[in-house]
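Re-run with default settings, no changes from the original entry. Doing this only to confirm the output is reproducible before filing.
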Amino acid sequence: MKNILIVAAREFRQITAMRSFWLTLLILPAALSLGPIAQRFLSDDTSDRVIVIDRTGGAEASSIEQRFASDLDRRQLQKLSRYVQRHKLEKADPAAPWASHDRWYTAADIAQFRASGGVKAALARINRVKSSETPDYEPARPSYEIIATPPALANLPDDRIGNAAQAYLKPADDKARPIDYVLLIPREFGASPQHYRTRT
């Protein structure tokens, strides 16, 4: 045991004699304190803007919009569940989907969440039971936002969409917010290959 202590003391003296040891002691607290602040400024909370040009009549664009809404509600349920679990707020509504943790939220859970009033109604119940010291819940932001298709794009032939879309993806006006995606759904989308060959 004595030999072990002698070796440990020698190692300790060698380590503390290094400049890198003291620099690490000085830098680490600063990094830990500045990390969350930097994350707040670097995180992008804006939604990706999407233009959907649906040549099928609108059904596909509607399906995409519904999927975006379902994904947002699922993320909202997951985030609400973590918030409720962290602050022990399940008693706000034990039967709500967000009061049940660590699981995948199904389409039925999303339907129940919407029928009960969504995030607004959930927060109303939670606020009735949470203490004043509990931080407020920050709702999840949508990942995508569907933008109405400009007539200048909607009325163009398919083979000219790519070039025309550049004005929206990379606008000349620096103050204009660009579109992130332009999605073209052709008229034949969803048709079987045999059906498509017959038509062409």
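Residues 81 and 101 are 6 Å apart (CA to CA). Strands lie at 48-54, 144-147, 181-185.
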